[in-house]
Amino acid sequence: MSERVPEAPATPIRVTDATIDDCEAVADIYAHYVQNTVATFDYLVPSLAQWQAKHAAITAAGRPFVVARAVDDGVERVVGYAYLGTFRTMPAYDLSTEDSIYVRPGQGGRGIGTALMAALLERANPDNVRQIVAVIAATGGDGSIALHRRFGFDEVGRLRAIGHKAEQWIDCVYMQKDLWPDGDAPAGTDG
């Protein structure tokens, strides 16, 4: 029996595959989190060129990179993004990914995170993704932890005082979802 994944709520949110042209909006959203929160441990805002390179690498690897779009004041704009990036660079981790989900400031509570997570999981190809790992800053991360839990992620550990930002030590919660819950590799996978 397959695990039921919560559906994205019926809101005027449209999730699409990200294009290179979306990288400017993605960079803008992420810059807020770098400069104003501990949700990311980045200290420096990545450049547009770095985001374009990240987009190219993720999509070339056959992994999803999606954006949520909404119409505000008659104009459609990117209100969030998510992707499955590299978990670790050593070859033994090739079928493991780390998810990243960010919502434009002021847009929380509209179901954007839920829509993005649903799209990531729908697009995750079990032929090249077995494990999805979430690394969540515990300070202010309750919403992200709850989102991951709703989609079947299990909390598998906590690293205490692992990051230092905004003059404080921050724990990270590790959550994990196995796309091969029965342990068997999908047909055509070397797993």
Description of the molecule:
- This protein is of the alpha+beta class.
- The chain has one domain: 3-Layer(aba) Sandwich (Aminopeptidase), CATH 3.40.630.
- It has helices spanning 23-36, 48-60, 112-123, 142-150, and strands at 13-17, 65-72, 75-86, 96-103, 131-137, 154-165, 168-178.
- It has a seven-stranded mixed β-sheet, with helices on both faces.
- β4 (96-103), α3 and β5 (131-137) form a beta-alpha-beta unit.
- α1 crosses α2.
- The mean pLDDT is 92.
- Keywords: Acyltransferase, Transferase.
- Residues 13-180 form the N-acetyltransferase domain.
- Pfam families: Acetyltransf_1.
- GO terms for molecular function: acyltransferase activity, transferring groups other than amino-acyl groups.
| Estimated structural class | alpha+beta
Question: What is the residue-mean pLDDT, rounded to a whole number?
Answer: 92
Helix content, binned percent: 25-40%
User: How widely separated are the two ends?
Assistant: 21 Å
Keywords: Acyltransferase, Transferase
Protein name: GNAT family N-acetyltransferase
GO molecular function, one term: acyltransferase activity, transferring groups other than amino-acyl groups
